[in-house]
Design brief:
The chain is mainly alpha-helical. Helices cover about 85% and strands about 0% of the residues. The protein is built from six helices and no strands. The chain is elongated and about 55 Å long.
């Protein structure tokens, strides 16, 4: 019986996590002026680096939240916080690089790598700060 309850807990957190990841990707791709999906399909390395770093930068704190949450609502709250942190990172990088989207569209790998790395670093820091 313990295995079934563990499997149920795993499934609940896993599928809620997948739903939060899908929501994050939907929101994030609507916030940015460029179309990440199209650019990646067109083999734009800058877009792939930026979006991959952002994706991982969200999944790391989401994983930390799954490990440390005491309930599903707690997990959801921390997932929303992780999303907000990634959006703050994006807008902060935009302050530093106002033409970020234009640079990514124009295959500027340095801009894409910087965006992805900033998102990844922010996600790691966010996950480390999730202590309760």
């Amino acid at each position: 019986m313990h295995v079934l309850s563990s499997l149920l807990a795993f499934s609940t957190y896993f599928f809620i996590g997948l739903a939060m990841i899908c929501c994050f990707m939907f929101i994030y791709t609507r916030i940015t002026p460029h179309n990440e999906w199209r650019l990646i399909k067109e083999n734009n390395v800058a877009a792939a680096l930026a979006f991959s770093g952002t994706f991982i930068g969200y999944v790391i704190p989401l994983s930390s939240a799954a490990i440390n949450s005491v309930s599903i609502p707690d997990y959801l709250v921390w997932g929303v916080i992780a999303l907000a942190v990634q959006l703050m990172i994006y807008f902060s990088v935009r302050i530093y690089m106002p033409k970020l989207s234009e640079n990514i569209i124009n295959h500027n790998v340095a801009a894409g790598m910087f965006m992805g790395t900033a998102s990844l670093a922010g996600g790691i820091f966010n996950a480390a700060c999730m202590t309760w």
